[in-house]
Each structure stands twice: as C-alpha cells, then as structure tokens.
Amino acid sequence: MKELHEFAESEEMYLKTIAEISRHGHLVPVTNIAERLRISTVSASEMVHRLQDRGLLEHTPYKGVRLTADGWDRAGGILRRHRLWECFLAEHLELPWKLVHDFACQLEHVSEDALTDALDEYLGLPSFCPHGNPIPPSQGVLEVRAATPLSDLDVGQDGVVLCIREEDGEILEYLDARTVRPGCRVRIEEIAPYDGPRSVLVDGEKQVLGREVAEHILIELVHDNETE
Questions:
Q1: Which end of the chain has less Cβ packing within 10 Å, N or C?
Q2: In what order do the strands lie in the sheet with 158-164?
Q3: How far is CA 190 from CA 32, 149, 177, 184, in A?
Q4: pLDDT per position as a tens digit, 132-158
C-alpha cells in the first residue's frame, strides 16, 4: 500500500465513502456522496475532479463516479484501518457498539501501515468488524458474503442480520436502541402501504423500521425448511 500521508483526511473520507456506497462497482452519483458526507454538491464535485486528476476515480458526467484500481487499493486500506480499530475499541476497550464507528473515523487517518498490521495481529486477524462488515486483508481478496437488504424482504420472510452497511453514527444509535445487530434473527410481520415502514420481529420483539433504515441492514435469508 502507499504511504499514509500522501493523502489528506478529506480525500480519504471521499474514497472510503465511495467504496462503502458503491454497489458491485456501479456508478455512484455525486449527490449521494454529498448527502452521505453532509456537504454541498458543489464541494463534492470539486473533490471528485481532484481525485480524478490523481487517477483514483473515473467520473461520468451526469451519472456518477467509479473508483479505479488505485482508488480501490487506497479505499481498502482506509476501510481496513477503520474496521480494525472498531474491533479493538469494542472488544478491548469495551466501548458501546453504537459509538466505535465515530471513534474509528478519527483513528483511521493517523495509523501507519506498520501500526495497522500490528493491530491486525494483536486482534487475531479478524475477518469482520463489530457491525459485520468484512475487513480488507493486507494482501489477498476481500471476503464478500451474499446478502439481501432487509428492505427487499416480503412479509413472512425470515433472516439473520449479517451486517450494517454504510455505517453512520446516527443509524447505529437508532438500530442499537432497537436491538438490531449482526447475528439477530428478524422476520417481516407487516409492510405499510406504498412501501412504508416495516413491522419486524427482532429476536421475537416487535420493532418498526423505516425503509431507508432497512436498506442499511443486510440479511442472510432463512428458508422455511431450515431448522431454528
């Protein structure tokens, strides 16, 4: 990987954000990036052009951006640092699950590769962060699991939560209050008209989740012929 300080913190945040919200390499609209980072579209467009000039992404006007191979390499390194710090903060400092994301966002920008590798070894080479997202290895292929957004499930379908994608402090706090975490069992009981809020059994307790939040929850489906 490249040396850490070749990139400003703001540039790293853009690369990580694009990697997180990209779907199988699909184009990511600049408006989506701006919304996720809570900045103006104009500011996002300026950074997009800067990263394009550095060969880290490709920009198709009026459609969106896609990371290049170098962009994915850099984004993977940032995600690796971030998710390893989440593991350390949750497992060893025992900080609340809902808070470790925001703390890791600070630490990911000040960790050299040697420190990241040492942290990985100390933690026992974990494969997933506390929110269920895969941790990119220093070398090799990122482990990706087949999953379905909770928002795509129909009434009566069951599943187990695999991860909370596109981590965000507010979303994690919201889900934590509703006991939605990786490993919990969910079942769609009711969907309000016009694709409205979902009534969901979460480990047997009824919760109501909006569609936008449900899109962040990735599920491994449990079929009727599978045992409890």
A1: C
A2: 148-149, 217-222, 158-164, 185-191, 198-202, 205-209
A3: 29, 16, 20, 18
A4: 999 999 876 677 778 999 999 999 999
Average pLDDT score over residue span 167-186: 93
Residue 228 has pLDDT above 50, yes or no: no
Domains and CATH numbers, the chain: 1-144 (1.10.10.10), 148-222 (2.30.30.90)
From residue 19, give the alpha-carbon distance in Å to each of 67, 69, 99: 7, 12, 21
Which residues, in sequence order, are bridge partners of residue 60?
64
- The DSSP code sequence of 59-108 is EETTTEEEE-HHHHHHHHHHHHHHHHHHHHHHHTS---TTTHHHHHHHHT
